[in-house]
Amino acid sequence: MSRLAPFLRLMWRDQRVALMRGLLLSLLVLLAGIGLLGLSGWFITAAGIAGLAGAGVVFDTFRPGAGVRFLALGRTAARYGERLLTHDATLRVLAGWRVRLLAALTLASHPVQARLRGGTALNRLTADVDALDGLAIRLVFPLLAGLGSLLIAAALLWWLVLPAVALWLSGVMLTGVALAVLVTAPATARQADLAETARQSLRAAMVEHLRARLLLAVEGRLPQARQTVLDHDRTARAAALRLAGTEIALDGAMQALTAVASAGTLLIAGQAVLDGRLGAAQAALGFFASLALIELVVPLSRAMAEYGRMRGAAGRLDALMQPQTVPPIPPVKAAPLDGLALTGLVVGREGLAILPALDLQIPPGQTVALVGRSGRGKTTLLDTIAALQPPISGEIAMAAGAADEDALRQVLGYLQQRTALLSGSIAAQLQLAAPDATPDLMAQMLQVVHLPEPLDRQLGEAGQGLSGGETRRLALARVLIRRPAVLLLDEPTEGLDAATARAVLQGIRAWLPDAAILIASHRQAEREAADRIVTL
Fold first, then answer.
1. Maximum C-alpha span of the chain
2. How far apart are CA 413 and CA 385, in angstroms?
3. Residue 163's closest CA among 268, 258, 257?
4. CA nearest neighbour of 370 among 143, 535, 205, 124
């Protein structure tokens, strides 16, 4: 429960009143169920005894009958209110958690955000938030309401029936439930986590299969890919069946525990009737009330199955929702002659240098191409210059300087290796960078990158509907529209033929004649467009 404790505290803080009302109504539902069955058993037995004794005419049937109807209607009303309050509170809590998670992720470091861009990571993140929707309804409330109902029922049975019956029921139920939880909780939690992992793997595999089906068909890999998805499906179903088997076994154990408690109650109360210490109707009250205790323990089997899924989700989300301690990035100074200047710059990943100290000056109007084998550190260098991660040492200076984040983004433009488009029109993609851009300016930007598309053309999810080269050019147009004084390009012509690549590079320089441009290059056209080449 330690992993769930932070989320329980947040839930309690955000929706304390609604949760207290829901818990109280859950308690009333269980008590009404116990009282309904116990009173019904007493009523039937007492009426039968009165009839055998010839006192049926004078036996009061109205008040017990009214009590039965009151408990039945009250139980229904309390159940409705409990569902209404707890589900509303749960949805409000989940909405708050999503806002907190988003706020934390927006402040996370660039490497953390890059890892979460993958489809599998995003699917798991969404599923983890959804997994905690039953934290109150299926885990906390059944435990607290069940314990409270058992103690109150035991107190009433002590008063109305026998202390021995109350002690027997409370002792057997508490001991049995505690043993069941201790014995089955670790294995059930592990199986629930495995089942959720298998389900998410199936979901990711299915999404990947659907997105890549055309490529798979062209490559003749569609049957093999389909078989891979089916293998994931078999694994997920097997894990779900194992978890369901554990839940059914635990449910059977809870029913057996209730049967033992009821049998013991019948034996104790029956002996008291034979000894003349208890009336038959009172004995029936105790026995039927013990049968109603099944309502207290049956939800526990479902709670144990959900516990493992919730525990795993809470462990992953808690780390992401904590305040991020991103290392401070040194301010970008003003370059002496504008352009871009790197002095003794050492970059790396996780504190480990991957490049020696670099000194580089790019005056306005000059283009420099970075070349080197894949993985040498070109992208890391560009990320560092763009203030997406801190340098290990050294200084960065650029045109007009950048005293804060807003100033830096006005000066700097960066086309990353992995570009991201949104659903919507092509105009909306450009307005993301320049909200006040006019249609004429946006049309001009499409001409600069040689993308002859209408501004009102609608794109699907993640820019679906464009080819790889078109996606690259639209993302480039979005960077160029702000007229940055320093431009960083990471493989800008990837996916373009040589002629189009040369035309796009010429268009960039014509649009930004005074910009200092640094290109991480793998293609000949990019090297030809550079004034200098720096080999890493």
1. 115
2. 11
3. 268
4. 535
Residue with tokens 């038959």: 280
- How far is residue 294 from each of residues 40, 244, 251, 300, measured CA to CA in Å? 16, 20, 10, 10
476 with 492: CB under 8 angstroms?
A: yes
Query: Rounded distance, CA 258 to CA 170, Å?
Result: 11
What is the DSSP annotation of 75-137? HHHHHHHHHHHHHHHHHHHHHHHHHHHHHHHHTS-HHHHHHTTSHHHHHHHHHHHHHGGGIII
What pLDDT digit, counting tens, does each position of 472-484 carry? 888 888 999 988 8
Q: How far apart are CA 427 and CA 517, in angstroms?
A: 25
Distance of CA 196 to the CA centre of its chain: 12
Distance of CA 8 to the CA centre of its chain: 16
Which residues, in sequence order, are CB contacts of 281 under 8 Å at separation 6+?
A: 42, 45, 46, 49
Mean predicted lDDT score pLDDT of the chain: 83
Q: List the structure tokens of 447.
A: 């001409």
Residue 495, sorted as left (phi over 0), alpha (psi -120 to 50) or beta, turns out to be: left
**pLDDT for 56:** 61
Phi, psi of 349, deg, nearest 5: -120, 130
Query: Of the ranges 90-99, 253-262, 329-338, 494-503, which one carries the lowest mean pLDDT score?
Result: 329-338
CA 406 to chain centre: 31
The pLDDT score that the predictor gives to residue 58 is 66
Position 67, amino acid:
G
pTM of the model: 0.66
- Provide the edge-to-edge strand list for the sheet that holds 532-535: 412-415, 486-490, 516-520, 367-371, 532-535
- Transcribe 205-253 into DSSP letters: HHHHHHHTHHHHHHTT-HHHHHHHHHHHHHHHHHHHHHHHHHHHHHHHH
Burial of 532 (0-12, 13-18, 19+ CB in 10 A): exposed
Calpha distance 492→282 (Å, rounded):
86
Tokens of 433: 């960078």
